């Protein structure tokens, strides 16, 4: 299954079967469990013509590699990132104020997977990242994303700064995060059409990316650590936007 990645857990598997079922190659269920939720997954797979395999717990444990699979694991095809040519079409399809997430050279697949998972949960419409010096949609990313790699459009672009200019022409306000700015995240207005811009794990936002942000904000840090992991920071920022928009 070299071209497939495991998605583990009942909720994540259900999402894959409902929203990305064309990309699901096979469903594994734990042979010894008798669970109504597993039966529902088997029914969903059957309706979609997806093979269902009964497996021992040890096989599920090995495939999930430590994730809590709850007796269910789907093998999903690794999705392709979307090209820049799709950007305007995807933006045109958004209902209500857009909420975008821009990731500047995030290289750790676990971080990208976690960002995609949070983006899906927060209702992000698009995730945008550069092609160079950034991780793409790999098996590890798909596994950590738990189905979100299939549901959240992920666009990789040749020139992130130029793409930011294109986004701003659509009336979308770009808000970047930086530890050396005075503006506080919780004082920013995140209710309108916005794109949250997060920097890389090490150096943060690059100069050209930073210069194209309409506003830079910081997350208040009360302890001794200087910064948060990019996926954690993205979650904090996205859910502040969710809170304001409710």
Features:
six-stranded parallel β-sheet; 10 helices; 10 strands; four-stranded mixed β-sheet
Word description of this protein:
The protein has 246 residues and is α/β, with parallel strands linked by helices. Helices cover 37% and strands 20% of the residues. It is built from 10 helices and 10 strands. The strands form 2 sheets. It has a 6-stranded parallel β-sheet, sandwiched between helices. The protein has a 4-stranded mixed β-sheet with strand order 1-4-2-3. Helix 1 packs parallel to helix 2, helix 5 runs parallel beside helix 6 and helix 5 runs parallel beside helix 10. The termini are far apart.
User: What profile does the largest beta sheet have?
Assistant: 6 strands, parallel
Strand order of the largest sheet: 7-6-5-9-8-10
Radius of gyration: 19 Å
Number of helices: 10
Please provide the ordered H/E string of secondary-structure elements: EHEHEHEHEHEHHEHEEHEH
Query: Between the first and last Cα atoms, what is the distance in angstroms?
Result: 42 Å
Shape by Cα distribution: elongated
Low-confidence stretches: none
Structural class call reads: alpha/beta
Average pLDDT figure: 91
Percentage of residues in DSSP E strands: 15-25%
Kindly state the number of beta strands. Answer: 10
Helix content: 25-40%
């Amino acid at each position: 299954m070299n071209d497939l990645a495991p998605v583990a857990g009942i909720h994540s598997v259900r999402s894959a079967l409902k929203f990305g079922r064309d990309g699901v190659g096979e469903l594994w269920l734990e042979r010894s469990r008798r669970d109504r939720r597993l039966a529902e997954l088997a029914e969903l797979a059957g309706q979609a013509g997806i093979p269902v395999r009964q497996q021992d717990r040890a096989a599920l444990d090995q495939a999930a590699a430590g994730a809590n699979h709850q007796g269910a694991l789907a093998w999903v095809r690794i999705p392709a990132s979307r090209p820049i040519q799709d950007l305007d079409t995807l933006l045109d399809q958004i209902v209500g104020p857009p909420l975008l997430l821009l990731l500047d050279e995030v290289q750790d697949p676990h971080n990208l997977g976690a960002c995609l998972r949070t983006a899906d949960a927060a209702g992000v419409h698009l995730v945008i990242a550069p092609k160079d010096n950034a991780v793409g949609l790999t098996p590890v990313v798909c596994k950590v994303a738990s189905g979100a790699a299939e549901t959240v459009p992920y666009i990789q672009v040749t020139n992130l700064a130029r793409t930011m200019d294109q986004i701003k022409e659509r009336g979308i306000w770009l808000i970047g995060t930086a530890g050396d700015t005075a503006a506080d995240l919780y004082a920013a207005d995140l209710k309108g059409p916005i794109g949250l811009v997060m920097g890389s794990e090490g150096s943060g936002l690059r100069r050209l990316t930073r210069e194209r942000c309409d506003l830079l904000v910081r997350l208040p840090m009360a302890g001794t650590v200087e910064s948060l992991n990019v996926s954690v920071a993205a979650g904090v920022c996205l859910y502040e936007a969710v809170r304001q928009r409710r």
